[in-house]
Each structure stands twice: as structure tokens, then as C-alpha cells.
Amino acid sequence: MKIAFLSAFYPYAGEISVGNAMLYRTIERNNEIQAFNFSLLYPELIYPGKEKFVDANSNTDIIQSTRLLNTINPASYYSTAKSINDFNPDVLLTRYWLPYLGASIGGTAKFINKKIKKFAIIDSMRAENNIIFEEKLNKLFVNNYDAFIVFNQQSKDDLLSVRPDALCIEHPRPFFTSSGDKVEQHIARKILNIPLNKKLLLFYGEIRYYKGLDTIFKTLTELDDTYHLLIVGNSHTNYEYENKKIKDLNIENKITIITRNPNVNEIPYIFAASDLLLLVVEKELSLDIISNSFSLELPVIATDVGRYKEYFDSFGLIIDKVDSDLLRDAIKKYFDEKLKETFKNNLIDIKYNRSWESLVTIIYDTYDKLKEQEDYTTF
């Protein structure tokens, strides 16, 4: 199959670009594919400070792309479509995560040759804050595509409210794949100089007020000495606040701190050394840490925010809110009932269902369905 993929790629930073790179690499194994990118995605006047690019030193998969589409320049909609038409693909694939994109993504699709099947993957059809003409922009996008893949029920409902007859397939959002092989726990702990015989809890990522570290500290005071906490990541206070808190609570012997963000080669060791990841947060974090949890097979205790219940219902325990009593009880339940193996066994099915390979299979099946409909109509 020949596929044109219109979305955000390198040099854009963020989850969409990273996920697109993984989807692109999966598709290119058995297909001819070309990436078409934005020349301007978030104009400063409308989205100040949102146009972010990858750091030159980051470990980024550089997808070669043609940067044509300017979201505020309608002339670029036509020139982008012309370039895609010249490539002459079987399928135009795009990604939709913000109503603001309705004009550019939908406008470009209007100029695509009718013989090309147009697929859209929908992350969301809602802005965090309602924007002007949101409904009209969504309608412009939806009415110019042939088939849709949605990642959640909310997006499906939003799509069908605009176009009740839309060909829509729901598929779980795929996870990013972490680099590095799995490591034996005792080896990882020796390398990281962590006690070998402890029940190791992991707090991972830069410390922010909404990430519940104070709650974790309080919980640790209520757990016996068989429990140990590993903290990995930077602190904006250079750990002055955290170290004082740890000392005041007299839990120094229960904590190991790696006071920096790890490099990509260290991540498998950190997750292998741990028994349980704690996401006791007030708002959902980026997909990176979630993907590491799944790909490196580390179960989770998470608060019921964002999409966490959807992600971790079979691979962790969900608590209602950031609360030390709820967290303590969940931690004890996890270890007392030996849930690690149960969750890891559940992961076998979850991994494929949330893989890029599974998503590509859906794209193939949807293309076949559209072709069958076309042949039937022609007949």
C-alpha cells in the first residue's frame, strides 16, 4: 500500500510527534510511505509559547518529511494537497487532536483526489478551553474524511454527533515503546546501589506540586521497614524542600534519590529495580511514563485522573484521590495479595491491543472495507 501521512513530525516536540514517528516506522515495514508536515502549527498570536521543537541533543527519531502545511495560510492547504496528490497514495492518513486543526487538516482534504481514501486518527475533538467556531471547525474536518479511528468513547461520541453515519472504529491508544531490553531485578538494584530485599516503590519524573510526593512521604511513615522508595528526577528546589521533609519525618533510611533525569539507557534499570510505580497525581502526566510502565512491565498505583483508569484497570490499582490512607491501603493490597504476577499476565493481551502494529492492522482492514463498499457501489 502507498500511504501519505499528514501530521506533526520532527522537528516538532511532544507526544503527537513521537507517536507519529512510531506509527510511521511501523507502517514503513511493509508499505511505501511519505510524511507531510506542518511549516507552522501553532501561531504565536493564537497559541503563545506552544510551538515547541525538539532539543538538538534529544534522542529523537528523525522522520524525513515535507514541511508545507501552515495552519493559518489557506494557500498552503492547496499546495499541501497538490504535493500529496503528486505522490499518488492509496491512503491519506492524518491525526486530529485539536479543533483548531479543522480548517487546515479539513481544508487540505477537500483538495485531495477522490480516488484517495482519507483516514483520520482522532485523539480529541475538544479544546481544553472552548475556541471560537469549534463546532464548525470539527464539521469541516469530519465532512472531508472517509473513515475514522478514535482512541476513546468521548471522541467517538463527538464524531457521531457531527456525522452520525461516519465509518468509525474504536482502538485503544497505543503506547510508546521504550528502548532497551528487560533487566533482571537483582542486577538492576546492584547497579543502582539499591537494597536487594526491599519492596521498592518508584516515584519517577521531575518533582512538581501536583505529583503527590508529600503524600507518598506521609504514606512511607505508615509502612514498615520492608518498604523503600526510589525517587528519580530533578527538583526545582534542588531537593532542599524534599530533604528537609524527609529528615523531619525521619525516613532517610527508607529513600534512595537519583537527583537528575536519567538517560535513555538507564530507564530499563530503574523500572526493573522497582516493584511498583506510584502515580499519585492531581492531573494526568505525559504518555512517556505510562508507556515505560507497560513496555518495561512495571505495575502501577494511580489516582483516578484523565485516562488512568482506562490505562491501568488491568495493570494496576486505582485510588479515588491523592490521599495517604488510600495509597497505604493500595500498596499493602498489592504486596499482600501478590498482584504483580497477575498484572504482568494481564499485560500479554494489553500489549498487543495497545500496539502500533494493532493500529496498522485496523488501517488495513478499514481500507479493505472502503474498497469493498466502492466496488459494491460501482457494481
Describe the structure.
- With 379 residues, this protein is α/β, with parallel strands linked by helices.
- The protein folds into 2 domains: 2-174 and 355-378, Rossmann fold (3-Layer(aba) Sandwich), CATH 3.40.50.2000; 185-353, Rossmann fold.
- The chain is built from 14 helices and 13 strands.
- The strands form 2 sheets. It has a 7-stranded parallel beta sheet, sandwiched between helices.
- The radius of gyration is 23 Å and the shape is elongated.
- The model has no long low-confidence stretch (mean pLDDT 90).
Q: What's the short version?
A:
The chain is of the alpha/beta class and about 375 residues long. About 40% of the residues lie in helices and about 20% in strands.
Q: Could you give the count of β-strands?
A: 13
Largest sheet: 7 strands, parallel
Question: What structural category do the secondary elements indicate?
Answer: alpha/beta
CATH H-level superfamily of the largest domain: Glycogen Phosphorylase B
Number of domains: 2
Question: What gyration radius follows from the Cα positions, in whole Å?
Answer: 23 Å
Q: Would you give the CATH topology of the largest domain?
A: Rossmann fold
**Between the first and last Cα atoms, what is the distance in angstroms?**
24 Å
Continuous helix count: 14
The ordered string of helix (H) and strand (E) elements is: EHEEHEHEHEHEHEHEHEHEHEHEHHH
Helix residue percentage: 40-55%
Question: Averaged pLDDT, please?
Answer: 90
Beta-strand residue percentage: 15-25%
* Coarse morphology: elongated
State the name of the first-level CATH class of the largest domain: Alpha Beta
Sequence of strands across the biggest β-sheet: 3-2-1-4-5-6-7
Ranges with pLDDT <50 over ≥5 residues?
Answer: none
Q: Please identify, by name, the CATH architecture of the largest domain.
A: 3-Layer(aba) Sandwich
